[in-house]
Design brief:
The protein is an all-alpha fold. It contains 14 helices and no strands. It has one domain. Helices cover about 80% and strands about 0% of the residues. The longest helix has 30 residues.
Length: about 300
């Protein structure tokens, strides 16, 4: 006779594996985009959009999701949200690809460390979610790290901040759209696909196009950008339905940590004292944030009827 307790544990174990796979792939993305460093960043972005749309559309149709696509196409509100998501994620992808190929992998990893804090701030400001002392403390500590780096280098770490804010805004818009991962990515890339295609056609006609002109290796990598984009997202989706968000939230730090290690160990970027202090402040802020979320979650479970905490 099957043990009913074993099934949830088995499902959670698979969820952890899916989560590790997703965040592991995202963490190793710098290697992929760096392999295309001979291709202009904007062309890489356009190919990523083009092939991601083609791949997700084929998979959607193969899985019988055509009805879902038609349903969203007939809903102006959800269609508008998908278009806004497509614009935001395209900007995020573009900044990230440029940052990786311009030797700013460390700063891009900082952006994804910051992302949960920015997402929580948007939740409080836009969705009126509660902000407690733990959240405020985490923002102050992270802000201290950003201020130290700004004063030291004479500029804001705009790459990190841009990546964190565009991805957090992307998540916020997706939350309001309520689309599953595959349908959402198909429609998001569909919204920006015509612009990507037009740009690539013009580049090819002008003789600047990389596709088919920079060797079979670069051409294959550009075409594979679609599956490379979609597969981690599908793995994440498979994991998040099997795991509590608290555990999935812990796994997400695999990605920026791997990016950091890739930047330092593989591509020789320097983790100087200022960057180390900034990173330390952000990690400390995340620790404060995580601990206080855990305590509040436990308190809510013990006292489900408790009133909201004061702001």
């Amino acid at each position: 006779m099957a043990n009913p307790d074993r099934e949830p544990r088995s499902s959670e174990s698979r969820g952890i594996l899916y989560g590790i796979a997703a965040f592991g792939m995202w963490g190793l993305f710098p290697i992929y985009w760096k392999s295309l460093s001979s291709v202009p960043s904007f062309q890489i972005l356009a190919h990523r959009i083009l092939w991601a749309f083609a791949f997700t559309l084929v998979v959607s149709l193969a899985l019988g999701r055509a009805g879902r696509l038609r349903e969203v196409l007939g809903n102006p509100g959800r269609l508008g949200a998908a278009a806004a998501s497509g614009l935001l994620v395209s900007v995020n992808w573009g900044i990230y690809i440029w940052a990786v190929n311009s030797s700013h992998i460390l700063e891009s990893s900082l952006g994804y460390y910051l992302n949960p804090l920015v997402s929580a701030a948007l939740g409080a400001l836009v969705l009126r979610e509660r902000m407690d002392r733990g959240m405020i403390a985490s923002y102050l500590v992270a802000g201290l790290g950003i201020a130290i780096q700004t004063l030291s280098y004479g500029r804001l770490p705009w790459i990190a901040l841009s990546l964190a804010f565009t991805f957090a805004l992307y998540g916020l818009v997706k939350k309001t759209a309520g689309l599953d991962v595959l349908t959402g990515l198909t429609l998001e890339t569909a919204a920006v696909f015509p612009f990507a295609l037009a740009f690539l056609v013009l580049e090819q006609k002008a003789g600047r196009g990389a596709f088919g002109n920079l060797g079979a290796w670069n051409t294959a990598l550009l075409a594979l950008a679609g599956p490379v984009t979609a597969i981690p997202l599908l793995s994440y989706a498979a994991g998040v339905v099997r795991l509590p968000l608290s555990k999935m939230g812990l796994l997400q730090y695999i990605s920026p940590t791997l990016q950091l290690l890739v930047g330092v160990l593989l591509y020789g970027e320097k983790l100087d004292l200022t960057r180390a202090v900034t990173l330390g402040c952000v990690v400390a802020a995340l620790a404060i944030f995580g601990v206080t979320r855990g305590r509040r979650s436990s308190s809510t479970k013990r006292s489900p009827g408790a009133s909201p905490e004061p702001r």
